[in-house]
Amino acid sequence: MLGLMQDRPLALPHIFHRAEQFFGHKEIVTATWGGGEERTTIADWAVNVRRLATALDRLGISEDARVGTFSWNTAAHLELYMAAPCTGRVLHTLNIRLFPDQLTYIANHAEDEIIFVDRSLLGQLWPLTDKMPDVRHFVVIDDGCDDPVPDDPRVLNYAQLLAESEPFTGRFEVADENTAAAMCYTSGTTGNPKGVVYSHRSTVLHSLISLIADGPGLRETDVVMPIVPMFHANAWGLPYGCLLAGTSMVFPGPNMTPGAIVSLLEKHRVTATGGVPTIWMGVLPLLDDHDLSSLRVMLCGGSAAPKSLSEAFREKLGIPFLHAWGMTETSPIATMYSPRSHHAELTEDQRADIRARQGQSAPLVDLRLVDPDTGEDVPWDDVQTGEIQAAGPWIAKEYYKGEGGGAQFTEDGWLRTGDVAAADSYGFVRLVDRTKDLVKSGGEWISSVELENEIMAHPKVAEAAVIAIPHERWVERPVACVVVKPGESLTAEEVIEHLKPRVAKWWLPDAVEFIDEVPKTSVGKFSKKTLRDKFAGYKLPGS
Amino acid sequence: MLGLMQDRPLALPHIFHRAEQFFGHKEIVTATWGGGEERTTIADWAVNVRRLATALDRLGISEDARVGTFSWNTAAHLELYMAAPCTGRVLHTLNIRLFPDQLTYIANHAEDEIIFVDRSLLGQLWPLTDKMPDVRHFVVIDDGCDDPVPDDPRVLNYAQLLAESEPFTGRFEVADENTAAAMCYTSGTTGNPKGVVYSHRSTVLHSLISLIADGPGLRETDVVMPIVPMFHANAWGLPYGCLLAGTSMVFPGPNMTPGAIVSLLEKHRVTATGGVPTIWMGVLPLLDDHDLSSLRVMLCGGSAAPKSLSEAFREKLGIPFLHAWGMTETSPIATMYSPRSHHAELTEDQRADIRARQGQSAPLVDLRLVDPDTGEDVPWDDVQTGEIQAAGPWIAKEYYKGEGGGAQFTEDGWLRTGDVAAADSYGFVRLVDRTKDLVKSGGEWISSVELENEIMAHPKVAEAAVIAIPHERWVERPVACVVVKPGESLTAEEVIEHLKPRVAKWWLPDAVEFIDEVPKTSVGKFSKKTLRDKFAGYKLPGS
């Protein structure tokens, strides 16, 4: 027997029209190149979305075309976030930190017909355009930068294009909620980048999660600044969540220095924000000179943040990070921290340990921990670890064009995340490592992430990454690559002495190497792959 | 182009298994007949749900049978809330306040195969059982009452049934999210009651709404007491929301006196609760003797509450009502109040006016105001009024067996709610009346609800209802039916004098009649219909 409820699709036009109708007076601030700011309102933003809808038609962009963006976090980017999917097209956010070969690969693989590009990023994109034959138009968005714009018939001006296009006057309609809304490529460690395709349904459901109280809890009275890039997994869904909740918004634009970010947070009395640990490491030393007392929520994700970093913010600002975990394939929020009634009995230090975890699976998401060797479920006893596998309405079931399927998805349709974790009986996940970053020593696993966090808790350490080096007897042994804070000095012996009371003896790294910087991926995570390449052929002491 | 997200249904088994896995340690308290209490945990509750699943199979209940309940708010009722839909069956909550004829009608119309009945309610149901030929079993739930239980082969004992049934050991699966999960009959003012059939999809989406921060914002640390009956529109979705969020729960059971309720709120440090205005009117005089400082959210809905009542609570407890509006056909939450950034500039009194409204449409719900005469959309200018029509994934599209369709649903598939409202430009709805309760005087409308609220703000008035009386010249004129507080005395002239500075002159009632009590419907709302019947043939003064 079927229910008798209305067949209304879960689709982005609802979020657009709701924002336009109820929240037109709310403000959107965008920081521009060179330290300026542009202000608009949701009402004016909505008019631009309606103009863009007409413009895409006028330019003859196909009905379900991929619409590329190569942009910072800006109000204009947010216009594209709505105009592409609300007209049935697919927003394709290109990651500005990719290598040229990867960029041309994904623009061609997605068959982007048009790319909207910020003027300050044009110099990076333009040399590749001749290798992107499907892209008929490059629309340059003024972000305050005065870099030269090529005189080329493919180049259009964003403001002019909007001015020449009358606003679409009707209601946007997307009848099938499973229609593609947006896509984002994930650069795996092997092979070509793979396309993750979000649907309207997955995007709307994921947006609701950013409103729930045991989570970011976005509400109309919030002022939200998404620092995590809008070219990376939809900025964790924050932009759509903001529009659904009707928050004010602040976008940091092209200047992503810690100084610029902390100034924006202070000036606009931001209440909720989100970024990767690297961002927060940069902001931490600046806290004493800025009043961030308006902050209520600091989302932190992308990679496991050291407890010491989160606690440093808690001590300064009174709020710890709200840890979340996920990846492009999970929309990306799969788990979130939130306080639990049984935490009330714990000491502050015990609570800090729990806050440093990645939290509990979000409503509608199912997780399981699977032993990568046996394929068996691992019990949630907080000791045994397994690969996290995920299922849910905003978890990918395959990659674009069916590529890379076999390895990443299980036979029963769950996503293999490649992250290894333990979970306590309350479902609080503790990331231990990436499957490929675990150090397998004598048949036992050593968590490189845990070693890194302990080393990074040392007051003289800026960053640390631990990699596995082949070992004749133990198969692999850990080596710590450590970046010392400017002006400090540190010896390998001091690092080992610092670790001794904190980890099992057999976990102690066989060597400590001092490096200038931990190499980062295009989304700011530690690139263990680059580090492993650098240390290929490394000889362990005594071997 | 389609998205490539997993096809996971929005279905109640997810909420069940999530609660069982993460929140097994959380407590559920049920008040029993005679002032006792029973305590259980979500873990033990889940075992009972699993036992019930087996029991329903053992008794040969059809795969998609309607499973009736005739119960108070209890942990056992919550077991049925999950066991019926998780096994593919349909929970049918029978309203214990219906007249015998209506009860037999809906049990037969829904073709209930089994009814679970609280022992204290058995005396009310048993005389009707011979008129319910489809019902093969009446399962009596012990609620602490020792009323006699008939010696009849159709009668089973709930505890014994569970004890004899092994817990189902697998995962519940509902593959199609549009499968019916629950049904509830709505007693219209004309004709037979009509069945509203909720789907798994609508129920899961509606449950998420009770978790959002601009709403009840249920979270794991909450202790929730649903006072609104579980036989009435799923107790506003609170039970499912509690299980999704992992809150502790307190159920008031059979003793619904204000004294019992206020004691439970105090004793269990309840943080979130919900009930109709009548309940809160009863609780108000008891506040001085009880410590309700734990309360964070008081949901109020079912009918428009007078501002004076909400403000009285705000003055005593520091929190005003969280007004919500909806009906059985809307699952029921269609609108909710929440504070808005632009309210910050208002005076406390202006804010009180806004809080007394029904709020803004919930995410995923669309509303429009339609002139009942012309069928045209009415602008949201806070002045012009129209019938609220609703669309969304948890709004009914038709009644069970297609009955009553034409009048209640528009051609484009929206629900006609029968409630008349104005809305401000921010979408904040202000209920004015029921379409059939409006007083049409000289071609203009008078809001009976607004008159009632003004009269009820008089310190000597307990309750007031305004009805339309036919009038030769003006077509209709208002008459106020007033209940004076015990020990007070009041004259018609005093009522009119009280109204004069508050409403337009032509709104002043033509007569004030003092009555002992405003008649109530089965769900505790003012029954204008009964009142109109009582005053049929009433002669207005001077006519």
UniProtKB/TrEMBL annotation, chains A, B:
GO MF annotation terms: ligase activity
Keywords: Fatty acid metabolism, Ligase, Lipid metabolism
InterPro entries from the UniProt entry: AMP-bd_C (IPR025110), AMP-bd_C_sf (IPR045851), AMP-binding_CS (IPR020845), AMP-dep_synth/lig_dom (IPR000873), ANL_N_sf (IPR042099)
The keyword Zinc is assigned to this record: no
Domain of life: Bacteria
Metal-binding listed as a keyword: no
Residue ranges of domain AMP-binding enzyme C-terminal in the record: 450-525
CDD domains: ttLC_FACS_AlkK_like (cd12119)
PROSITE patterns: AMP_BINDING
Residues of the AMP-dependent synthetase/ligase domain: 25-400
The family this protein is said to belong to: Belongs to the ATP-dependent AMP-binding enzyme family.
Name of the protein in its database record: Long-chain fatty acid--CoA ligase
